Amino acid sequence: MSMNSESLLQMFENALADIRHVRDAFTPTLTPKEVGQITSVTTGIAKVSGLPGVGFEEVLKFPGNVYGIAFNVDEDEIGAVLLGDYWQLHAGDEVERRGHVMDVPVSDGLIGRVVTPLGRPLDGRGPVAATQRLPIERPAPSIMNRAPVTVPLQTGIKVIDALIPIGRGQRELILGDRQTGKTAIALDTIVNQRGQNVLCVYCAIGQRASGVAKVVASLRDHGAMEYTIVVVTEGNDPPGLSYIAPYAATSIAEYFMEQGRDVLVVYDDLTHHARAYRELSLLLRRPPGREAFPGDIFYIHSRLLERATHLGKEFGGGSLTALPIIETEAQNISAYIPTNLISITDGQIYLSPSLFELGVLPAVDVGQSVSRVGGKAQRSAYRAVAGDLKLAYAQFEELETFARFGARLDDDTRKIIEHGRRIRACLKQPEFAPVSVPAQIAILLALTEELFDSVPLDRMTGAEHAVHEAAANIPAEVCARFESATKLNDEDRQTIIEIARSSLAPFQLPTPSKGTIRRNS
What does pTM read for this prediction? Predict the structure, then answer.
């Protein structure tokens, strides 16, 4: 009997020791919620008190499933940027800390979808299946992790690919006045990535709903939504959503870049982004500076665009190419925001309203446009056939003004002007009509060799189309050299010239007689 008592006692002590061990090893996972209160609500802004542990840019949850970001973290009060329907909030409502910074869902399931910067779907196709979330604000890759920009990003637009080339990993600014075709260039570039293994992210910032719907419909009609993600904020959305939109789009793009893929992101446009940030800053009582913009307006764009890069092979070799769009007023490219972005980016494509009114589309002003990286990434075949084209076009634009007065011109000047008019005619291109690399090479080489100079201006459209179609007859081994770093040899050039010359034969007329150049109508 005593033995049984001793055994039971030992078993009880062992069980008690196990319980103590489990108790000591237990770490409670529940933490007390930190809850504050709204003290005031204005347009897109809420002042909150009672959250002493909140951090900068931490997510806050408001009633009605409305989220915000802690923007001004003062000693007694927090200024929060609201990201939802703020008109249902009132002073005294509870505010809860979420314990993390603003993030966005990322996954392959986003491809082909239209979403908000918060990852909520707008296309009626159900929720987005996300595998992970990434912060919208992430540090740019370090210099040592980057590789040179050496691979071109073909836009399919002749004037850009030939004279203002863009490389994968570059930041190329598109700027111009309203209604000059800035979005059209970005959409043409997206459409041309079909079959190029480039993923595209189009970020609409503060756009009209009808305009965004038109863009999505155009991308879908041309089969581009198969490799495109559209991130949307509309004009009637809270300014906080417009502010975070480009950062969220960049984090989505970085998710694919870090997998080793090439990504193109379009910000349309950063004018609305800067104005949204100015509105938030003024409502938060931050000190205004030039044009009432806050002092860090340069920094919000620089830390965004610095994330565009080409990663080294040891980091996957992916690239992120950025095409920010900015709107100028009365062709003033020296204004505050345009000059900021020109200094941040690696070049700019300027669209002239004067050319647009003349029907020169795309209305790219070659003289004020530049690519500081693309020449290194441009295919050698382009450099061989378009090397002197920009100079010839610049000379033509200088001399064209004199020809308008009906002055008597010498033969050399008249030849430069006639050649320049053919260059301008060939660089015209309708929207959503990308030109393949072989066709561009054939047209540019025909221009360089002055084969178009004997074609009347009113027949240039048909002549160029004939060369475009004849480019399909270029031998496959020659086309293969277009895609490589191999330079075109004399035999290749002669082959292309003969194909172009035969296609232009029906359009050519005898060389016009010498005389006075008539004034342009």
Answer: 0.89
